[in-house]
Amino acid sequence: MQSLRQDELNKLRRELTLMHAEVAENLGKSIVILKTGDTDLAAGVKKTGKKIDEMQLMIDDMALAYIATQHPVARDLRELVTVFKLTLNLERIDDYVVHLAKAAKKLSGRPSIRSMDRIRRMAETGQAMLKAAFAAYLEQNMDGARTSAAMDESIDSEHKALTDEVLAFIKNNPKQVKAAARLLRLSGYMERLGDHITNICEGIVFICKGSHEDLNQIKKGKGKDGD
Questions:
Q1: CB–CB of 130/27 below 8 Å?
Q2: What is the architecture of the domain spanning 6-219?
Q3: CB 122 within 8 A of CB 190
Q4: pLDDT (tens digit, 9 = 90+) per residue, 187-205?
């Protein structure tokens, strides 16, 4: 048994960086659609889905090959095992980003619903979370991962407030029930996006610490185990 060569680990991290960059770019485009109504961007977001899937398979195969041939131990092994969690959650995040782009396109031009501002804020918080989470991965920074996960509390709060607003909106505007229902679904997607980024953060903590930590409990103020 041996440590993974640094050049091999760096190659894996570069590929993950490229996958993260694709997902982050899609999320940024979706936020632009929300802000500007530029629906032409929606097609570009959708077309990258296959590329993301291919990147996930390639990176997973690379990690599996390293495990099988290099027999890594300790921190190297934890990182390789966690790679599967990172790629899976990045792929799921991109799925929700595609949903965001599609919904933003369908809602474009409809009567303004105030809750769209909450959707935008949720997406922007998710964008900040994803950026912080991946920086924490590259830096192998547990505190950075925990800070990123803590941002999900803001998304959860917006989701709850939006749900209350939309239900009240439906009562007063029954003819717009379809648009309102789409908002509820979209808010749910953004809530799940935050959860998947939190999963990535938990994987980073596992790489660094060697034990699992429930960051959903931490962000709710229920404490954490000592390092």
A1: yes
A2: Up-down Bundle (1.20)
A3: yes
A4: 999 999 999 999 999 999 9
